[in-house]
Design a protein that fits this description.
By secondary structure, the chain is of the alpha+beta class. Helices cover 20% and strands 36% of the residues. Strands 1-2-5-4-3 form a five-stranded antiparallel sheet. β3 and β4 form a beta hairpin.
Protein backbone atom coordinates (compact mmCIF):
# COMPACT_ATOMS: atom_id res chain seq x y z
CA UNK A 1 0.00 0.00 0.00
CA UNK A 2 1.21 3.49 -0.85
CA UNK A 3 -0.40 6.84 -0.01
CA UNK A 4 0.81 10.36 -0.80
CA UNK A 5 -0.55 13.89 -0.74
CA UNK A 6 1.48 15.16 -3.69
CA UNK A 7 -0.15 17.28 -6.39
CA UNK A 8 -2.54 18.91 -3.88
CA UNK A 9 -4.65 15.75 -3.52
CA UNK A 10 -4.51 12.35 -1.83
CA UNK A 11 -3.39 9.35 -3.89
CA UNK A 12 -3.62 5.81 -2.53
CA UNK A 13 -2.60 2.55 -4.21
CA UNK A 14 -3.13 -0.83 -2.53
CA UNK A 15 -2.72 -4.45 -3.47
CA UNK A 16 -2.11 -5.83 -6.95
CA UNK A 17 -2.21 -3.61 -10.04
CA UNK A 18 -1.67 -4.35 -13.76
CA UNK A 19 2.04 -3.62 -13.32
CA UNK A 20 2.19 -6.88 -11.33
CA UNK A 21 -0.31 -9.02 -13.28
CA UNK A 22 -1.85 -8.66 -16.70
CA UNK A 23 -4.90 -10.87 -16.04
CA UNK A 24 -6.87 -8.44 -13.85
CA UNK A 25 -10.41 -7.27 -14.44
CA UNK A 26 -11.02 -3.63 -13.52
CA UNK A 27 -13.78 -1.08 -13.03
CA UNK A 28 -13.21 2.67 -13.02
CA UNK A 29 -15.07 5.76 -11.86
CA UNK A 30 -13.94 9.29 -12.70
CA UNK A 31 -15.55 12.49 -11.39
CA UNK A 32 -13.62 15.36 -12.95
CA UNK A 33 -15.66 18.06 -11.24
CA UNK A 34 -14.96 16.66 -7.76
CA UNK A 35 -11.43 15.61 -8.81
CA UNK A 36 -11.98 11.99 -7.78
CA UNK A 37 -10.78 8.84 -9.49
CA UNK A 38 -11.13 5.24 -8.41
CA UNK A 39 -10.08 2.04 -10.12
CA UNK A 40 -10.59 -1.37 -8.54
CA UNK A 41 -8.85 -4.55 -9.64
CA UNK A 42 -10.28 -8.06 -9.46
CA UNK A 43 -8.92 -11.53 -10.15
CA UNK A 44 -10.97 -14.71 -10.09
CA UNK A 45 -13.87 -13.02 -8.31
CA UNK A 46 -11.73 -11.46 -5.58
CA UNK A 47 -10.80 -7.82 -5.15
CA UNK A 48 -7.01 -7.70 -5.25
CA UNK A 49 -6.16 -4.01 -5.66
CA UNK A 50 -7.30 -0.39 -5.83
CA UNK A 51 -6.15 3.06 -6.93
CA UNK A 52 -7.87 6.06 -5.37
CA UNK A 53 -7.28 9.75 -6.07
CA UNK A 54 -9.17 12.46 -4.19
CA UNK A 55 -11.93 11.38 -1.83
CA UNK A 56 -10.78 8.50 0.40
CA UNK A 57 -14.29 7.67 1.61
CA UNK A 58 -14.69 3.88 1.67
CA UNK A 59 -10.93 3.23 1.66
CA UNK A 60 -11.08 1.12 4.81
CA UNK A 61 -13.80 -1.09 3.30
CA UNK A 62 -11.76 -1.62 0.12
CA UNK A 63 -8.64 -2.53 2.09
CA UNK A 64 -10.64 -5.04 4.13
CA UNK A 65 -11.88 -6.71 0.92
CA UNK A 66 -8.33 -6.92 -0.44
CA UNK A 67 -6.94 -8.33 2.81
CA UNK A 68 -9.76 -10.86 3.23
CA UNK A 69 -8.85 -12.60 -0.05
CA UNK A 70 -12.41 -13.91 -0.13
CA UNK A 71 -14.64 -14.03 -3.21
CA UNK A 72 -16.66 -10.84 -3.53
CA UNK A 73 -20.40 -11.51 -3.52
CA UNK A 74 -21.14 -8.38 -5.55
CA UNK A 75 -20.25 -7.73 -9.20
CA UNK A 76 -17.18 -5.46 -9.63
CA UNK A 77 -19.27 -2.43 -10.70
CA UNK A 78 -21.40 -2.79 -7.55
CA UNK A 79 -18.29 -3.00 -5.32
CA UNK A 80 -17.17 0.26 -6.89
CA UNK A 81 -20.54 1.88 -6.12
CA UNK A 82 -20.54 0.54 -2.55
CA UNK A 83 -17.01 1.84 -1.96
CA UNK A 84 -18.41 5.40 -2.01
CA UNK A 85 -21.01 4.60 0.68
Amino acid sequence: MYTTTMFHTVISVAGVTPEHRDDLESVTHTDLEAQNYRKLFFRRGRQVGAVMIGDMKGRKKLLELIRAREPVAEKPRRVLELSYA
